[in-house]
Write a structure and sequence with these properties.
Number of strands: 16
Strand order of the largest sheet: 3-2-1-4-13-14-15-16
Strand content: 15-25%
Helix content: 25-40%
Order of helices and strands: EEEEEHHEHEHEHEHEHEHEHHEHEEE
Oligomer: single chain
Radius of gyration: 21 Å
CATH topology of the largest domain: TIM Barrel
CATH architecture of the largest domain: Alpha-Beta Barrel
CATH superfamily of the largest domain: Metal-dependent hydrolases
Number of domains: 2
Distance between the termini: 16 Å
Number of helices: 11
Shape: globular
Largest sheet: 8 strands, mixed
């Protein structure tokens, strides 16, 4: 249910110290008016933004809520090196977690919302070991926070599709059970048959009329080849705007001319890309992607799980990481990272955010002098608003 709200004293996207504070009226879940001295209609609640930075709400465009251990006792990292070992390490350990999948996912999703993200796309592992248990846990977390955030769930074959008989059928069941998209994982590098792997993924997408989000860690010419295969299927099935490539490491591991070809191809077919600002890979060409019209979003990936001890549920923290990993210093480039983490991610999941009249009333207020200062300081969020209702204040859910 959408709400009405008057937010007092906030500074919309301030890129300098002299941007004045205004009031913002939310009506029917939309941003209805900006101005000074606005009057709230009878019965409409008022909240104080304290002169803070007003931003569109954050979008976590790539999460793994099913694997999180945020809030649980710390466990030393036990995986070996390489993708296969990381996958097997999760399989060895996930059933011994101190809380159920739904409890862990609900807690971490709550922390993500309290930190300012009201749009989340989470992958949920579907395989012959866990069946639909992890998917059901993430769906339960979505339901628990349905009034606080919009959550999409990807049925994700983290152990491959072709390696284990029955996985394709489980993905089909997951889509019938409520998953919003079908995922894929390194069709060539992990499943060893990119054509057959993508045949399964896109056949399921066509059958259920759902979107696609493929993890593509494969770099270099192998990864580039798979980008082309994905774009071919987008064209054949008329799926422009419905497909995302997560990570897309090929874009940062080919030469400049090949990268230009791939970026242009993705733009032509409206294939989006998400990054998690990884610490051990060269950053994606953010400016080139955006200048070419490719939708780009940012996500947290796994959060304190069996893959990695990193992550805290805070998309503003991940925005800082994106700027830092790219070596950005000018305010304009750091603000671009904020745009990727807010409006950019929303565009990846097919939604629109902004700070104009008529835009959804999904906003966050962060203490700070400017947008860049807010990223550098990363203070607890003053307010988080979803569809015109306050869902968190002072860094805690309400």
């Amino acid at each position: 249910m959408t709400g009405d709200l008057l937010i007092r004293s906030v500074r919309p996207w301030p890129n300098s110290l002299d941007v004045p504070a205004v009031d913002v009226l939310c009506s029917g879940g939309k941003l209805a008016a900006f101005g000074t001295g606005l009057t709230a209609p009878p019965g409409v609640p008022e909240v104080d933004g304290g002169g803070g930075v007003l931003l569109p709400a954050f979008t976590d465009a790539h999460a793994h809520l099913d694997s999180t251990r945020l809030g649980l006792p710390f466990r030393p990292h036990s995986a070996g090196t390489g993708l296969a070992e990381l996958i097997e390490n999760d399989r060895r350990n996930w059933r011994t977690a101190e809380r159920t999948v739904s409890e862990r996912a609900t807690h971490t999703l709550g922390r993500t919302i309290a930190c300012g993200a009201t749009i989340v796309r989470s992958h949920a592992q579907v395989d012959v070991d866990s069946g639909l248990e992890k998917l059901e846990g993430v769906l339960a977390a979505r339901e628990a926070h349905a009034h606080r955030a919009h959550v999409e769930v990807v049925a994700f074959p983290q152990c491959g599709i072709l390696r284990e008989k029955g996985t394709a059928e489980l993905l089909d069941a997951a889509l019938r059970a409520g998953a919003d998209l079908v995922g894929g994982l390194d069709p060539a590098g992990y499943d060893r048959d990119p054509v057959k792997h993508l045949d399964v993924v896109f056949a399921l997408a066509e059958k259920h009329q759902r979107g696609v989000d493929v993890h593509l860690h494969d770099g270099g010419s192998l990864g580039a080849f798979q980008v082309e295969l994905i774009c071919e299927r987008v064209a054949a099935l008329d799926m422009r705007g419905k497909v995302t490539i997560s990570h897309a490491f090929a874009l940062s591991t080919v030469d400049a001319e090949r990268r230009r070809e791939l970026v242009d191809l993705m733009a032509e077919h409206d294939v989006a890309v998400t990054t998690v600002a990884p610490g051990v890979r060269d950053p994606l060409p953010l400016r080139q992607l955006r200048w070419s019209g490719v939708r780009v979003g940012l996500g947290q990936d796994g959060i304190r799980d069996y893959w990695s001890p990193y992550g805290n549920g805070d998309m503003l923290d991940r925005t800082w990481q994106l700027a830092y990993r790219n070596g950005f210093r000018p305010d304009a480039l750091i603000e671009m990272c904020v745009d990727v983490a807010t409006r950019g991610g929303a565009s990846v999941v097919g939604r629109t955010l902004g700070l104009t009249e008529g835009a959804p009333a999904d906003v966050v207020v962060v203490p700070g002098d400017t947008v860049t200062a807010a990223v550098m300081d990363r203070a607890p969020r003053t307010l988080v608003v979803h569809e015109g209702r306050v869902v968190a204040a002072g860094g805690e859910l309400v």
